[in-house]
Amino acid sequence: MPESLKSTTELNNGVMMPRLGLGVWKTDNSTAKNSVKNAIEHGYHLIDTAKQYGNEYGVGQGIKEAIAETGINRKDLFITSKLYNGDQGYATTLHAIKGTLKRLGLSYLDLYIMHWPVDGKYIDTWRAMEKLYHEGLVRAIGISNFDVPRMKNLLAHSTVTPAVNQMEFNPINQEKKVIAFDNWKGIQTEAWSPLGGGEALGNKAINKIAKKHGKSAAQVILRWDWDRGIVTIPKSAHEKRIVQNSQIFDFQLTDDEINAINNVDQEKRALWYDNFKWHSVNAPYTDEVDHWDDSPKDWKE
């Protein structure tokens, strides 16, 4: 089958996941609704959100409107959300999924991800996510922002291996150790912040490759992700950019070009444990949900 937005990868539980999708971090409900609707209308099937983003309601409205206008079936979409850090723990995780499904207007998720490993809680949290998986409320469960030691600890106390590990991954932060571990354990790596912001997009080596192919730096990076087998969810609030991000199937990178981008790596993370205090259960700080003026009053329920 030709490469396209319909192309999928098989997760370790047999579920098929689209390889390129839309992310909606730092997007209010109204913008998220329009972005999701535009993305689905232009052929995207993978949509990624999170309770922490504060826009599950808008994402749900975008899905609803896109289904009504395009006639696409819900089962053909792949919807991901993430467990909020403040909801971690066994009982609270089982309760939190209800709010996420209500805000999205869905009866199940295709992928439910633990947003960060909250130390002292993530083992009990995972037990609850396994229960949700076995009950069929989620088709697959995954993790995000886990380093290798925490992944090893999770696997030592789990009965279900995570299907996906969503990491900050881009040309300047390639997380070689994490990806090697994911590959060893059959866990699909998924990239958040795949374009690496201005630093990666402005890289001379990447722009040289882009000029050669008549493509943007973003399109070259997304093609590089594709060739490396990384599931990718670039964010955009603009319909034109959403379309452009999907136009990566009409050119090929050479091995030398792929290696040139591989060599851009600086192991430079934008976010990691040292940036936060809440990853320790005993810390005096907590993570917060993004609040938007267009959030419904009962968004937490």
UniProtKB/TrEMBL annotation:
Taxonomic superkingdom: Bacteria
- UniProt entry tagged with the keyword Ribonucleoprotein: no
Active site (record annotation):
Y53 (proton donor)
* Residues annotated as domain NADP-dependent oxidoreductase: 20-265
Per UniProt, the keywords (alphabetical) are:
NADP, Oxidoreductase
Q: Which residues bind substrate?
A: H115
Q: Which GO terms describe its molecular function?
A: oxidoreductase activity, acting on the CH-OH group of donors, NAD or NADP as acceptor
Site feature: Lowers pKa of active site Tyr: K82
InterPro entries, alphabetically?
AKR, Aldo/ket_reductase_CS, NAD(P)_OxRdtase_dom_sf, NADP_OxRdtase_dom
Question: Could you say which protein family the record assigns here?
Answer: Belongs to the aldo/keto reductase family.
Q: Which protein, by its recorded name, is this? A: Aldo/keto reductase
Q: What is the lineage of its organism?
A: Bacteria, Bacillati, Bacillota, Bacilli, Lactobacillales
